[in-house]
Amino acid sequence: MNWSAFIVFVILFALVTVVGFWAARWRKGDLTLLEEWGLAGRRFGSFITWFLIGGDLYTAYTFIAVPGLVYGAGVTGFFAVPYTIVVFPILFVVMPRLWSVCQANGYVTPADFVRGRFDSRGLSLAIAITGILATLPYIALQLLGIQVVLEAMGVTGAGIMHDLPLIIAFGILAAYTYTSGLRAPATTAVIKDTLIYITVIVALIVIPARLGGFGHIFAVANTHLLAAPKPASIFLGPKGYWAFATLALGSAFALLMYPHAITGVLASKGQKAIKRNAVFLPLYSILLLFIAMFGYFALAAGIHTKVSSLVVPLLLLKEFPSWFAGFAFAAIAIGALVPASIMSIAASNLWTRNIYKEYVKPTATTADESRVAKLVSLVVKLGAVVFILALPLTYAINLQLLGGIWILQTLPAVMLGLYTRWFHRSALLIGWLVGMVIGTVMAASQGFVSIFPLQLGGLVLPVYAAVWATLANLLVSVVLTWIFNAAKMARGVDATTPAQYQDARAGGIGA
Amino acid sequence: MDDKSSRPRSKQWYWLFLLPFIGTLWPPFYAHEYPIVAGFPFLYWYLLVWVVLVGIISAIVFAITG
């Protein structure tokens, strides 16, 4: 057991716990209202939103998985950089419209919006279920982040003692999320990011100097990658172009469709706060590029492991004194708590608004909604703990991969729906179903790999399965809309008005 | 489009956002080793430059369109 690392870890964890509970009293609101518990009253300014969306996008799983991928597959893992470049223009252009229409109509979830826009319970249910399904394995994988750092510190035991620290950590998270709602991840995200930025800056100063500089690190990493049983490289060859570009593009659109990302956006106080964040959020992408480099650092430092999730913890243990390794481990573990908290709130909001109130108890009051959402957030986290402790890890990883493909299938209804009501609601629903099935079959047929090589004539295009699935989804939606419109099938009533998509304060002109 | 009439002319600045897509999603532009800067092969520092550029482009569009 590495005591000095563990003590630093426990102190920082205790700090986060105190802040998480204190958050209930911060910018006090009536937490018996779902808008207050689940969106913190839509009052977050640019600064807090930066931490909240940053906490959403750059999770512990990112910090563990991206360098792990780079360690094993080389440059391929760097698709995460163009991904987190192009995501921000999309955030800037699209999400302010979503914020405005949701604020004007009191919508809490993307499924609320789809319900109002297309007047379709079925489509709304599909969006809600997709969101919940995509989020649950993501929450489970945040636990993996905590698990690996506990293991790296030598916190081991037999039977239940082995799992107890993880259960305690998640129990604390569940308790403060229950009492404080979205205010908890918003405040703890500030601590999380402070720790992460310090860790990465220190690592960039210390590790390259110890390993002989960046040029040497790239060279050694490349030698190791070329010599691996499944050879890879630090250079991107023409064969990798399609996968690299489509993974980046598909992931960027998928990210903003995730319920937790939308929750972060809706909790901000206006269009300007979102746009300002598109300006400053790329700071995290600089961080991500260097975190991805940790994979090369590990190769150059002579770290040998078959478990990709251990690459970063082993590197930190080897290159840092143990007390600072404890600091870095706390950064990763807290980096797991923040998104897990937001994700569980987002899943609870979907369940409460679009399944419970819609199908179980239509007479539910706002107090009922808040009560149910709080309880569901506990159930969701309990489910995640059971998932990660009782089932093989590959289940969670495969499901998270599928989740990215699935969530992108909500794009035509949610994102295109912000711009046009041309699509027929039934066409969107069938398109969604086609996309879900094709994406799942494609990924499963490759043994749960994201890239599907599709044969088009004499050409084989290895493209992110989510992109193929979305193209099929769009094609079906367009063709069926033509048919359904020609057949004059009922289109329902649009509950939103064009002015509601513009900046509220500018009186619908949006200047 | 439901609301073309209320679309202000300043939104044309949004076209600037095509640049990061073209610059970073077409690997033939940057999948090279040289020139190396500070030990970083071209691909790596090129993408790093784009991270900064995308922030600057957003800042420009924000300043103009509010």
Mean pLDDT across all amino acids of chain B: 87
Q: Tell me about the biggest sheet of chain B?
A: none
Q: Remind me, CATH topology of chain A? A: Sodium/glucose cotransporter
Q: How many β-strand runs of chain B?
A: 0
From the alpha carbons, calculate the radius of gyration of chain A and give it in angstroms: 23 Å
Largest sheet data of chain A: 2 strands, antiparallel
Descriptive account of the structure:
The complex is a heterodimer of chains A (511) and B (66). Chain A has a two-stranded antiparallel ribbon. Chain A is globular and about 70 Å long. In chain A, helix 4 (60-73) crosses helix 16. With 511 residues, chain A is mainly α. Chain A starts with a helix and ends in a 25-residue tail after the last helix. In chain A, 73% of the residues lie in helices and 2% in strands. In chain A, strand 1 (451-456) and strand 2 form a beta hairpin. Chain A has one domain (3-404): Sodium/glucose cotransporter (Up-down Bundle), CATH 1.20.1730.10. Residues 506-511 of chain A have low confidence and may be disordered. The longest helix of chain A has 39 residues, at 322-360. Chain B is an all-alpha fold. Chain B has one domain (16-65). Chain B contains 2 helices and no strands. The longest helix of chain B is centred in the last third of the chain and has 24 residues, at 42-65. The radius of gyration of chain B is 16 Å and the shape is elongated. The chains are: A mainly alpha (511), B mainly alpha (66). The A-B interface holds A 75, 78, 81-82, 84-86, 88-89, 92-93, 213-218, 234-238, 240-241, 244-245, 248-249, 272, 275-276, 278-280, 282-283, 285-286, 289, 419-421, 498-499, 501-502, 508-511 and B 1-3, 6-8, 10-11, 14, 17, 20-21, 24-28, 31, 33, 36, 38-41, 43-44, 47-48, 50-52, 54-55, 57-59, 61-62, 65-66.
